[in-house]
Amino acid sequence: MSRPIRWGWRASMLLLPLLFACVTHWLAQERGPLWLGANSDPSYQYLFNSLLVVNGLPPCHVDHPGTTVQMLGALVLTVRQPGMDFKKITHAALAEPERALAGMEIAFTLLAACALAIVGCVTVECTGSVVAGTAVQLAALAQIGTYRALLFVAPEALLVALTLLLVTLVLARERAGSDQQGRRQARWFGVCLGLVAGAGVVTKVTFAPLCLLPLLLARSWREGMWIGGVMVASAAGFLAPIVSQIPRMFAWFSGIATHTGTYGGGARGLIEPARYLGDLARVVTNNPVLLGVLLVSGLVLGVFWRRRGGDGAGIARLIHVLRVAVVVQILGLLLVAKHPHQNHYVLPVALSCTLNVALLCEIARAFAAPWRRAIAAVAVAAGLMVVVGGVELKAYARDLRQSRDAELALK
Q: Which of 11, 36, 163, 342 could form a disulfide with 351 if both were Cys (CB 3.0 to 4.6 A apart)?
């Protein structure tokens, strides 16, 4: 394979991220200004808490905990006003809060678009197929939650990029060779996985199930301990600005975990069993792309379980990674089903299905004759999901526009 073609493949992975950024900008116009009642929460909370960080004070909003969002917001606010001290930066942001928030939105969108391009490029490198890379990107873009996350300054806006980066690092680490150089690369990818996982769980605790991925995929207990140590150090570093608020944060999480109601309300207990299964079904059906990918993954795992070996070490490892991914995703669904009305809680798990798609394409590639047809089938399925997602996206844009116009009319 010639080098120019390979660089052409990589360049093609920029097309969908560019389209994604354009669609997100269009939806932001349909949404209207963030000061509208339906739009202000939690964007303005994160603006004010980012200003606290700029002023060297601990953030007060630590529910998610969301510290990474506030730190990134403080960085964006500082970069927007180069050479100014913290007082002038604060006054400028409060004088024109919508412009300050727009700068933060652009930063999150750029991070998400870059992560989408990177995961496509890595998939192309792993599978040797630009169709597979495109299918992975479409699996993310076919979900309405991906766009919704970037319309507000909130933890989900950063989780889009962090989840896709985690998937990218898992794929890159699995592709590292078994020689000395490959082991060295795998070790550094493990460090990066720990850093991203620590940042993700501090961004929002709903990312926690995905932190199991790098730990369960470690090839030895020593490697797992190394990754876990980096993960803990990363989380501790990102929590440093709110060290004085940590007791209040843990009290908040404890209330959520030990009460059956919303946000720590209701009777004491983990769940209401009579209602939980219905809530779980509602979460699953609200995420058809994730459901479809899980069903196909389960089918493939069932086929290879019946074969009982004889597929080679490479295929066995891919099947193991796919199995771990499915288990982690099911755990994530079980976790968020306690609050089924908050569909954005499932975002990290929903976006992690891009890992399944990449693995399915790579498994198909391992079978010489039918792999092209299999990958083409994956691409067709992803295309159909995008058509369905496009219909949903159009309806979502209409709802945003109607809400914007109604609130502006009241104003």
A: 163
Q: What is the pTM of this model?
A: 0.93
Angle at 125 between CA 211 and CA 305, to 5 degrees: 60
Rg for the chain, CA atoms, rounded: 22
Asked if residue 137 has pLDDT above 60, the reply is yes
Let me know how long the chain is: 411
% helix, strand, coil for the chain, step of 5: 80, 0, 20
Task: Spell out the SS3 assignment of 269-320.
Answer: CCCCHHHHHHHHHHHHHCCHHHHHHHHHHHHHHHHHHHHCCCCHHHHHHHHH
Among 37-41, 189-193, 262-266, the least confident range: 262-266
Contact yes or no for 333/284 (Cβ under 8 A):
yes
Average pLDDT over every residue of 274-292 = 88
Whether 104 shows a pLDDT value over 80: the answer reads yes
Please compute the mean of the pLDDT values over residues 242-253 and round it to a whole number. Answer: 88
Is residue 8 predicted with pLDDT exceeding 70? no
Phi, psi of 106, rounded to the nearest 5 degrees: -60, -40
- Quote the tokens at residue 18: 């560019």
Task: State how far the Cα of 171 lies from the Cα of 192, in Å rounded to an integer.
Answer: 12
Measured CA distances, 407 to 34, 171, 398 (Å): 12, 45, 14
Residue 2 has pLDDT above 50, yes or no: no
Angle at 342 between CA 340 and CA 346, to 5 degrees: 80
CA 250 from chain centre, in angstroms, equals 23
Band of residue 3 on the pLDDT scale cut at 50, 70, 90: very low
Cβ partners under 8 Å of residue 171, min gap 6: 119, 122, 123, 126, 355, 358
Residue 4: its pLDDT value, please? 40
- Whether pLDDT at 35 is above 70: yes
359 near 321, Cβ under 8 Å?
yes
CA dihedral 39, 283, 350, 225 (to 10 degrees): 110
pLDDT for the residue numbered 205? 93
Q: Which two tokens stand for residue 223?
A: 């490697």
